[in-house]
Design a protein that fits this description.
The complex is a heterodimer of chains A (491) and B (376). Chain A has 491 residues and is an alpha/beta fold. Chain A has 21 helices and six strands. In chain A, strands 3-2-1-4-5-6 form a six-stranded mixed β-sheet, with helices on both faces. In chain B, the strands form three sheets. A five-stranded parallel β-sheet of chain B has the order 2-5-8-1-9, with helices on both faces.
Chain lengths: 491, 376
Amino acid sequence: MDALLTRYVRALRQAGAQVSPAETLDAASAVSLVGYASRERLRLALGVTLAKTPEDKALHDDMFDRFFTAGEDSAQDEAAGPDAPQLQPATPGAADETGRDETGRDETGRDETGRDETGRQTGASGGTEGRTIEGASAGEDRADAFLRLARGPDLDLAIRQAAAAAGVDDIRFSSQSGYFIRRILERLGVRELEERLMAAMQQDTAEAQAMAAAMIAARARVFERARDLVEQRFDVFGRGATEAFMDDVVVNRSLAELSGRDLDRMRAIVARMARRLAIRHGRRRRRRLGQIDVRRTVRMSLRNEAIPFELFWKQSRREKPKIVAICDVSGSVARYVRFLLLLLYALHEGIADLRAFAFSSRLHDVEPILRSLPFDAAMSRIIRVAGGGSTDYGQALVDLERGHPDIIDRRTSVLILGDGRSNQTDPQLALFSSLADRARRVVWLTPEPEGMWGSGDSILPLYRPLCAHMAYCRTASDIERAVDEMLSAYA
Amino acid sequence: MTIRIRPPQAISGRLRPYPGASDPVEAGAGVARLPQADLKEADGLCAAPASSSRQSMMSHTATQSLSAIDTISARLEGVGYISTPAISTAVYLAHHLRKPILVEGPAGVGKTELAQSLSRCLELPLLRMQCYEGLDETKALYEWKYGKQLLYTQVLRERIRDVMGDAPTLEEAYARLGGFQDLFFSRDFLAPRPVLQAMEQPGGSVLLIDEIDKADEAFEALLLEVLSDYQVTVPEIGPIPAVTPPLVLLTSNNTRELGDALRRRCLHLFIGFPDAGRERRIVRARAPDVPDRLLHQLVDFVHSLRSENIRKLPSIAETIDWARTLVLLHADELEPGLVRDTLNVLLKRQADTAEVSERIETLTRSAVAGGQPRQS
């Protein structure tokens, strides 16, 4: 199969798209149907066969341009018309290579298809075949070959071949580019060149100095081209991996330590978490419990001469989780509240019904704020409205009971986020206990590690026996796990 | 000797494009009916499946229409569906790669309409299956005709003595009986549902599985065999392959995430809101009486409406409805009062209407200003 396509699929996968081998095969047949002649058609055909979700579609549209424009053959772009040039090399039969401006291009252009594989093999064995331009031909000094390439029109092609042999497509991080550039240069003979350069610089003749200058210029020229190529390859193959790595870092970093740039990244991550939770908990499981479906049983019994041999049950529908989130928004905890609410907000309506309350001294229903404003504005509004007072957990519970006596029932999970530092006020344990009895379960998340519970004015140990679950929650993935666990109670 | 049950008459050429209407044989009331009445009905309604050995090809018109991407666009336009390159490419590939298309996009952008238009322009029957929660194989693939089976048992009971009467030993009686025990689970007693019906159309067909996201996940799994191999396996009979593989379209509004297995087997087409040019052509095709000036104005208005903070965005279907409404009201230009009175055609939520009601004047004026017919 077509190596260009496989490389493209690989680039898509690196960027995070889910492409299966079967879909790659489909894409190959699609390409053989529509051909490489029209760029737009190729883009659509690959989009239809490879990208099966809106996210993947966006990835594909982005990647297609990067891969096929900057990617394959910038030297040839300039030579031919605007429509097809960079795509042609991949179809040997269709490639109209004759009449090109440069000699040697006709065979080498064709070589593109096999380059990925053959280039690597020859690279591994260290040999240089007649068809590959890279390196010295028989009897030629490698340094001479380097100079010849640096001056000649074949430089770009030679660099691409060397890059394939050096495995540049495996690049993951931009910090690796120096290494790969060096590998490319070495394959082209830079080491021999540098030896000669050192020798020339030690000689004190004008001729040697001029030679040295020429060699330095040649090296710089090749270096520049190699760098361009490696950067472009990083763009195509590495960026996705880097992004994934950064995401991983951010997810496992303490929420209190996140910087402003991480917050943007976090938004995307939280959206993904929400989607993941939605997939896991959005399914309705059927249980064979409840009432008999008389109509269906009678109808289906016809196959047994109307003897109700097989019973059919009315499907009991899974109830939708209802989450009441009570968040302490005093200074130390506000950061955590932001992510919890962001996540719960993303799950709202589809998966779970959310009622959110915020308090420091008095309890505020923040539902209207979340509903009417975009999330960031809503968040700062909430902190302005509810934050700032001295924290009083007991008062918050009393306010909840007075203001919303019916909000907690047996399908409600109560999620409390707070450090339990209540400034020596009455914890209202009896009230909390009755609330916990009525709720399906009470989960308490705290940004303090277990060793700190109970120290100073912390009253977490008092509440702990009444909660189904009390957990230290420091990172975004901790919050995800807690919400996941809570939704599992409704399975 | 063996008893042969006369196969019901094949009803040739009779298609039932919208099945699912109550079939008296299995409607439950059948038991109480007189056998004669039932017999008639059972015979009449049994669309005998075409014999699977017959290998037919898709009709000539259809094959020709699907031969090139541009032809598909042209044919679709011929029946009033303004295609995009993406849509035509997907249809072209679906036909040539023999793959179903999963169509996603907001409500009302023409996902279902695409299947209907394809059926019209390819002159193939459309088999439509509306998905809902609780849909199962007896509604989608096939069902046994229990009433008929029951009836035939009764008829056979009378005749059983003739068969068995002269059997000297139990073994022989058993052997004779063994000769036709599978009679009741044969094709004659199989009632095909939309999916199986689509497979049995000799000239090919368009199978629309609408709003697959509304069905349960188990149902998705049930479809996988159909989508990848174009065959339905009935345990009692074995696999029934498609006579001519139908063109399959699945639509989804994304109320739930579809399984990966399903996505992998389909080509994926996303239809979004059209650009102004395409939307004008669509409205022109569907509401030909709209004056040119009004057409430009109303499409521009809808486009600016889509960038407002609205939850249920007006889609093409709403634009067309609005255009028709305005024609009925003999409007030839947008004006704020008219827009305000007819806005409920475009916006289906009270909150959305409230959201834009203050800005109607501005939006209308800018649509009227920018909406002069342009020379292009």
